[in-house]
Specification:
By secondary structure, the protein is α/β, with parallel strands linked by helices. It has two domains: 4-70, Ribosomal protein L30/S12 (60s Ribosomal Protein L30, Chain: A, 2-Layer Sandwich); 78-231, Alpha/beta knot. It contains nine helices and eleven strands. The chain has a seven-stranded parallel sheet, with helices on both faces. Helix 6 links the parallel strand 6 and strand 7 (143-146).
Length: 232
């Protein structure tokens, strides 16, 4: 039976709370009371182990003395994300750093987004590193992996979702548009930006005005600006 190791207090606690995937065992070297309580509530065994055992299983990750053996991450279908009332979606094109994906997941959870859509190939998935960077938000936010992002955007538009590319050369600032109702923000990697076919599948584009010397934001920060403006 396939499994993976997640590490860190918040990721383990949120995995126990969310019940989205199986938690088979928690290994704790610090005797954390919240971990113990959440595990007991879910009927998950907690094993007290030396810290070096936790370090071995975390493989260099910042574990805070706790790891858990869990089932593989349960990706969602695009249809599930679009079934939410007035979907608010983040589409990531070519984001390969799992820590960036994790940070976007944390933002998406905070903004109450319906979900995140990522490509199946040449992009970060929800790995233990992404789970850690998300502070456990990954266990609550649906993530869909799509073979063809252009086709995924077409399905979104068929469902009434307006898709906006985030790019520096756009004609409209994000504050100039009515972002109420079903909206998807499409963000690319900091290096390559959006692929042409993905950009062409969007209804429009927005930019975030930059006042300083640096011309762009980290993808998770850009996602935060856009998602919270849409919520406002």
């Amino acid at each position: 039976m396939k499994q993976e190791i997640i590490y860190g207090l918040r990721p383990v606690v949120e995995a126990l709370r969310s019940k989205r995937r199986e938690v088979r065992e928690v290994l704790d070297s610090v005797g954390d009371k919240e971990i113990s309580s959440e595990a007991a509530a879910r009927g998950v065994p907690v094993k007290r182990v030396p810290r070096n055992r936790v370090e071995e299983l975390a493989r260099g990750g910042v574990h805070q003395g706790v790891v858990a053996r869990v089932g593989l991450y349960p990706y969602s279908g695009l249809e599930e994300i679009l079934a939410a009332p007035d979907p608010l979606v983040v589409v990531l094109d070519g984001v390969t750093d799992p820590r960036n994906l994790g940070a976007v997941l944390r933002v998406a959870d905070g903004a109450g987004a319906s979900g995140i859509v990522v490509p199946k190939d040449r992009a970060a998935g929800v790995t233990p590193a992404a789970v850690k960077a998300s502070a456990g938000a990954s266990e609550h936010v649906p993530v869909a992996r799509e073979t063809n992002l252009r086709r995924a955007l077409e399905k979104m538009k068929e469902a009434g979702v307006w898709a906006y590319a985030a790019e520096g050369g756009a004609a409209s600032a994000y504050t100039d548009l009515d972002l109420s109702g079903p909206v998807a923000f499409v963000l690319g990697s900091e290096g390559r930006g959006l692929r042409r076919l993905v950009r062409e599948g969007c209804d429009g584009a927005v930019f975030i005005p930059m006042r300083g010397a640096v011309s762009s934001l980290n993808v998770s920060v850009a996602a935060a600006v856009l998602l919270f403006e849409a919520r406002r």
